[in-house]
Amino acid sequence: DSNRLGGGFEVASTTRLSGRAIGGVRSFRLRRAGDGPKPDDVLEPYAAVDLTYHFGPRTRLGAAYSRDLQYSAFTAVSGRPTIRMDTYRVRLDKGLVGALDLRLFGGFTKLTSDGPVRVAIGPDDIVTAIRDDEVWEGGADLGYTFRRHLRIGVAASYTERRSTIDDFGIEGLLVGGTITFTP
């Protein structure tokens, strides 16, 4: 059972700085059936910040940060079944010629479990470890916008995730197309 309490501000501008910043505290309570002892509430700070600076009508630089506590999908051996996630992102949107634009992005995410978790890799292979993942990613999307509502592009992104659980590691390049419709 989880609730958040927080506050923040929002700035709306198409000429300079726009975005929002929210912060507060998350209350996390494990709910158990029966008459057994109930664990204490966990109070953890959270934040969600996303700001964009407009250098001109066709150039925007953005940065985002988020921190939160989430329920883990894996069985906790000890401690709470939670995972702490910190994410940092930057992006650059640049209008090129006419309706052609380029969107670049990069990011880093850190995932840390509260205690050791048990993960079934195969029928007879169970791994127990504190989950401590680092994810690096970057990419580009070159697109063309039709009549201000439909954008079609070609994108490439590279992701590398290192984890204390070997099977969670990822490294690879993804290339494909994008379609965005803005009503």
Descriptive overview:
This protein has 183 residues and is mainly beta. It is built from no helices and 10 strands. Strands 1, 2, 3, 4, 5, 6, 7, 8, 9 and 10 form a 10-stranded antiparallel beta sheet that branches.
Tags for this model:
183 residues, ten-stranded antiparallel sheet, 10 strands, mainly beta
What fraction of residues sit in β-strands?
A: over 45%
Query: From the alpha-carbon coordinates, what is the Rg to the nearest angstrom?
Result: 21 Å
Terminal residue distance: 36 Å
Order of helices and strands: EEEEEEEEEE
Q: Sketch the major β-sheet.
A: 10 strands, antiparallel
- Summarize model confidence as the mean pLDDT: 88
- The parts where pLDDT drops under 50 for at least 5 residues are none
Class of secondary structure makeup? mainly beta
Quickly count the helices.
0
Number of strands: 10
